[in-house]
Amino acid sequence: MKYAFPGGYQVSIIHDCSVYCSSECWEKDREFYELNPDEASEFIHWEGSPIECDHSDCSNQIESEYGENES
Ligand SMILES: [Zn+2]
User: Fold this and answer.
1) Residue 10 near residue 23, CB atoms below 8 Å
2) Taking a C-beta distance cutoff of 8 angstroms, is the pair 63, 33 a contact?
3) What is the 27 CA–ligand 1 centroid distance (Å)?
């Protein structure tokens, strides 16, 4: 598994109910993912409301690439 940052898109790491804002945040829980390598994958938040990073030491918001839906 590799973590690329293509074309300026913000790639986040998602795991079941946890979303990390960056690979640095993901690194903080790395031990878990080394034991469970299939649990994490790349994730680009295309549109909708910002998602808050689930890492307890981080309060970053993951902005969507296309912004919030207007509905
Ligand atoms: Zn974070």
Assistant:
1) no
2) no
3) 10
- 0.70 exceeded by pTM: no
Q: How remote is the CA of residue 29 from the centroid of ligand 1, in Å?
A: 11
Distance 13 CA to ligand 1 centre (A): 10
C-alpha 9 – ligand 1 centre gap (Å): 16
Structure tokens that stand for 62 in this block: 């993951």
How crowded is residue 23: how many other Cβ atoms within 10 Å of its Cβ? 15
Ligand 1 centroid, distance to 35 Cα (angstroms): 20
Lowest mean pLDDT among 10-24, 26-40, 48-62: 10-24
CA distance 65 to 43: 12
